[in-house]
Structures are given as structure tokens and as C-alpha cells.
Write a structure and sequence with these properties.
The structure is a homodimer of 350-residue chains.
Chain A lengths: L3 E4 L2 E5 L10 E4 L2 H9 L6 H18 L5 H16 L6 H16 L5 H31 L6 E5 L14 H10 L4 E6 L6 H12 L4 E4 L4 H6 L5 E4 L3 E3 L4 E4 L2 H10 L4 E4 L5 E2 L16 H4 E2 L2 E2 L6 E2 L4 E4 L6 E4 L2 E4 L3 H10 L6
Parallel strand pairs in A: 4-5, 4-7, 5-6, 7-10, 8-11, 10-16
Antiparallel strand pairs in A: 1-2, 2-3, 8-9, 9-15, 12-13, 16-17
């Protein structure tokens, strides 16, 4: 399954809003429509929207390739702002857009047309790196998964949330590839049902056993010893290791701690935002009330009531057993540990 | 709103499956259909299904009133078994049926026809008592609700879950009646959405401010200090104070403890089952997978996956700040405290 493809100057996205019932691919050749696809959640998942935004910049550059250099760069800046504004919490989006802009600015003496070509190559590179990075995360993380593990996950941090393979589900894939038996419990993940719609779909396609539960069942399963560990992805990780991820992650972390279960976060470097001291500074997106009051267009709640729909929450670093990255595992993350980890990895994440 | 009425030998039930979109009343004159209505959740909520089952016994007695005494009692026993089997967890169902059978057996020398009349009176008495009991629970509990309290509740322990007024929501009603300002956060309560469909509906009808959230948001709201206390109903309480209630209650109790928030259970004597030493012995109903895989008939999860759908969980007594009953409040319940409480209340609940 290739949920994100770029073919003949067209970005092709699997419409994740319709899964698992329909597998429809939508085509994009205009960055504005790409920004809208991110906003409307045709594609979601921090690494995936990063890669898609990079292709958005490449499409903008292609549209501007016959303009003069000044217009080219001001047009590119507008596309960058539009794409970054599509969703506020996942930092991979801003990371990918900034990386693309930096590449563009570095091409001194090149024509807009030449830069546009270089940007398309860079976007493809970002997508390719994402696959490789996930594979590395998976292989490091697989060591943490015992044979016959019963793994609880939340939302979808799988192939669909990335360019391929997945972060949290990449760890599951690598464990299975290493010959381990793994049973996955997937929180359905209200209101958008990424668990029952997407995680269940992509795991069942690979014959990895998956059982869906309602989000509110997680604690009871832990109490019944039906869960050995929890693993999730991330949308943004602050300098101290605090993790913004899909709403409900924080509750799971507290429940895991109360049941002495390991709680792992799997995320690439591009999800870290070391400019933020703690998770308190991470902007949390609130989405439309209708995600809770309606279901596929059908009203389920009465009119005239309040509705609160934050799309993410922040889990303090002290709840994490470890963060699994492409350069290894950071146990019980702190500001100091993250600093020295990134220094050793030779990676420049401000 | 009278969600349970008995008029001219017909039991009238508000169909809670259709709320809040449609207000449809269904009529029952056959105990078998009443048992089915309980099973299919036309009516739900521990005290409500107790009262409805009592009317079911009254309907069975009416059907048998021209039979000889032996046939009358064997027919009644069959109805009792059928009604009790409709749902396994809420003990109020068995409690009401047993109370009705005891009344029938006590009418030495009466004809089946006379007993049938007495049983109808008894069913009406059970319904009337339920209203009065809830009012008392509400008034005791109101003392625990501070002015301007932000109260989190789960499922629907309201007028719709009882004959009227409600247990957990009865406490909210009494606090509001006492002049306090109360804001209610209602977990939507997957998979059946009793929170967003029923709790939101009955509170908004009385202009009590209610905001719905997805179940997985509760922990994050507690962390944000948007919640002052949690109050829920119960389906069965064991002799040591362990509480079976709607799935998700246990997670909330653990989350409340982690955030140092009071966690209250509001329940009448009829919800206590002192024959069970601990909550481990309470039978937990598992319901149909389609509650998770489908939504109003539309498939939302892929085929060929696992699905786990326990309808209730058990919260150990040590998580409870207090149980609120019609005879007063039991703080930090233990077997000893419950024993002496029931002794003082002069109430015979084995």
C-alpha cells in the first residue's frame, strides 16, 4: 500500500477519511488543495503530513517556475505559510516546510525552474528518508517487544500516518518480522476512529492479530492483565521529553503507570521541537464540534449543548518509559538526556 | 418526562435507543417483550430495568390470572427467570424480580387473580419508591457538590436510568435545586453513547449546563483542572464496596485518584449485592461486536478483526471517596463499614 505517491507532477493521496470502507485515491496538483487535504484529514499523522507538505512546496515551486526570482520566493513563502497553518500541533509539518525553504534558499544562482526541480527531488528525498527512518525506529523498538506481547496502541501511528512502515506500528512490524508473536489491541480513538478504521485496517491486511476496543476499556484491560505494554506515536516532543500526541494518550500514560506497564513513544527526529522547553508550550488544535455531535452526517447528540474537542494532549516526560528514535532508544527522557542524545547522534535539531 | 409509565394494563417505555433524535414511546403487554426490551436496551440503567422487570412480572401474573394456583406459580417462575436473564450485571433486575416473587408467595389463600392485582400494586410501589429513593440520594449527595463545581460523569445515571430523577444526576439536580451552580462534563460513553445521547439530552432539557467530551479526554481535562469531582451510578456493589458500573468507570477512578479528585458513586440499596464478597464475583456482560464495528448500521471497522466489548467494569472500593445512598453517605467503603451501615439503616440486604 502506497498511501502517498508522486507521479507525473501529481501528488496522489489515499483518502483516509473513507477507510476502511472505500479505498479512494485523490489527485493534487495545487499546493492550496494539498493544504486543504491536510486540514480536512484526507491525510493525517505527523510524519505523513510532513512529507505531503514537502510535496506541496514542490507543487508551489512548479507553479512559480516561470516567475522571476523575487516572485518565486515570495510565492513560495506564501505556500509555506499556508501549508504550515493547515494543522498546528504536529511539528513535522513545519519541519518539512522549513527544510524545503532552506534548500530553495541555498540554490544561489539557480533559476526558479532549476530550484523547482531541486525541490521536487528534495520532497522525494524527505519521503524516502521517512521510510528508512521508520524502519530504523522499528528495528530499535522491536527489542522492547517480548515474544507473545499484548500491545496496546492508540490512534494510528502506522504506515498510514507516515510515508510507509509506521512509527509505533513500525515497531510492531519489526517485532513480527523478527519472528515474535504480537497481539495488538487498538483503541478505537474517538472521535475520528483512527484506531478502528486505520490501525485495524493496516494490521489486518498484514495478518497481524488486532482487536479493537473502545477508548474507555483500556484501564479495565490493563487491570485484567490483557496488556503488557503501550506504544504510541507522537505529534511533537518538547526539549524535556514531554509528548503531544492524539487526545487520550495522556490518560493511557497515567493508566499504564498505575498498572506498572511500560509506556513507549516511537517518533523520528523530525517530531522533536527543541525550541520548546516543555510540552506546556505546544499548541493544541481544537477541532470542529461536529466530530462529537455528528457521525457521518447523522446527529447523535442533542442541540444546544456544549462540546469540547481538543485533538491532542500532552503527556509529561516522567510518564514515558522510553522514546524510540531512528538513532536509538532514550530511556526516561529528560532535557539533559535529550541534549546529549542529539549531540551524540550528530543531529542538528534546535 | 416519564420514561416508564403503566397505563391501562400497558407498560409504556420511552425508546432510549432513538434518543435524542426521536422521542418514541413503545407499548408492552407481554412480559416476553418486556424481557426483550431490556435485552435490546429500549430501557437501560440499573434502577430502571429493575422497575421495568417488576412490571414485567405484573404483566405475567395478569396473563396467568385465570390459571390454577400451581400453573400460576410455575408460569410466574418462568417469567422471573426470563426477565432476570435479560441482562446479567445490574443486580436491581434480580432484586426487583425476587421482591415481586416474594410478595406473590406471601399471599396465602389468595386466588391467582387476586395475587395478580397485588403484584401490579407492588410494581407501582417499586417504581414510586425508586423516585423517592433517588430524591434522598440526591439530597444527601448535594452536600458533596461545591458551588461552581465542574462535575464529570460517565454513561447516564439520570432520570432515564431510573424511574425518575436519577442517582448521579439526581445529586446534580439536588445541588442545582439548592441554588448551586454546576457545570457537567459528560463522557460520550462509547460504544452506546449514553453520555452524549442521554445525559446531554436530559440535562439540557432542564438547562443544566452540559458539555460532552470523548471518553479519552477525561484525563486531559483533569490535568487542565477543568474537573473538580467525578460522580457515577452503579450496576452492582459487592459487600466490600467494589462497584460494577458502565465500562470506563474504572479508568475514570484511576485517573481521578492520580489527580487527587473525589470519586463518588451514587446508588440505592437495591444496587448492593451483599451475597458477593468482592467485585471479582460480579458477572460482566459482553455485548455484540457490532456495537464497535458498526454505527447505526454503517460499518466503520474492517472485517476480519477481533473485537472486545465488555459492557461493564469493576472499580475496587479503595478508589471510592464515598458511596451516596438513600440513607446517607458511606465514606471510603469497606466490608465492615457497609455491614454496620446497613445494620444501622435497619435494612435487610443480604
Amino acid at each position: 500500500m502506497d498511501s502517498i505517491r508522486f507521479e507525473k507532477n501529481i501528488l496522489v493521496l489515499l483518502d483516509q477519511r473513507l477507510l476502511p470502507i472505500e479505498e479512494i485515491y485523490l489527485e493534487y496538483s495545487d499546493w492550496r488543495m494539498v493544504a486543504n487535504a491536510i486540514k480536512e484529514m484526507v491525510v493525517r499523522g505527523a510524519p505523513a503530513i510532513g512529507a505531503v507538505a514537502a510535496f506541496g512546496i514542490a507543487l508551489a515551486a512548479d507553479e512559480l517556475k516561470d516567475a522571476d526570482t523575487a516572485s518565486f520566493f515570495s510565492g513560495l513563502a506564501m505556500a509555506a505559510a499556508g501549508l504550515k497553518a493547515a494543522r498546528p500541533t504536529a511539528v513535522n509539518l513545519a519541519w518539512a516546510v522549513e527544510r524545503m525553504l532552506k534548500v530553495a534558499k541555498n540554490q544561489i544562482g539557480c533559476s526558479p525552474s532549476q530550484i523547482a526541480e531541486i525541490l521536487l527531488t528534495e520532497a522525494k528525498q524527505i519521503a524516502q528518508e521517512d521510510r528508512e527512518v521508520n524502519k530504523k525506529i522499528g528495528d530499535f523498538g522491536a527489542e522492547l517487544i517480548p515474544d507473545n506481547a499484548k500491545v496496546l496502541t492508540h490512534c494510528n501511528a502506522g504506515a498510514l500516518a507516515t510515508v510507509g512502515y509506521g512509527t509505533a506500528l513500525g515497531v510492531v512490524r519489526s517485532a513480527v518480522a523478527a519472528g515474535k508473536k504480537v497481539i495488538v489491541y487498538a483503541d478505537e480513538t474517538r472521535p475520528y476512529l483512527q484506531g478502528s478504521r486505520l490501525t485495524a485496517w493496516e494490521l489486518s491486511r498484514e495478518n497481524i492479530p488486532v482487536t479493537i476496543i473502545a477508548d474507555n476499556m483500556a484501564g479495565y484491560l490493563m487491570k485484567q492483565k490483557k496488556i503488557d505494554l503501550v506504544i504510541v506515536g507522537a505529534d511533537r516532543i518538547a526539549a524535556n521529553g514531554d509528548v503531544a500526541n492524539k487526545i487520550g494518550t495522556y490518560s493511557l500514560a497515567v493508566l499504564a503507570a498505575a498498572h506498572q506497564l511500560p509506556f513507549y513513544v516511537a517518533a523520528p527526529f523530525s517530531t522533536f521541537d527543541l525550541t520548546l522547553k516543555t510540552g506546556e508550550e505546544i499548541p493544541i488544535e481544537e477541532r470542529c464540534e461536529t466530530e462529537l455531535t455528528h457521525f457521518y452526517g447523522k446527529r447523535i447528540a442533542p442541540e444546544g449543548i456544549g462540546c469540547y474537542n481538543p485533538s491532542f494532549d500532552v503527556t509529561p516526560a516522567n510518564y514515558l518509559t522510553a522514546i524510540i528514535t531512528e538513532a536509538g532508544i532514550i530511556y526516561q527522557p529528560t532535557t539533559e538526556k535529550l541534549q546529549s542524545f542529539f549531540k551524540e547522534a550528530g543531529h542538528d535539531r534546535r
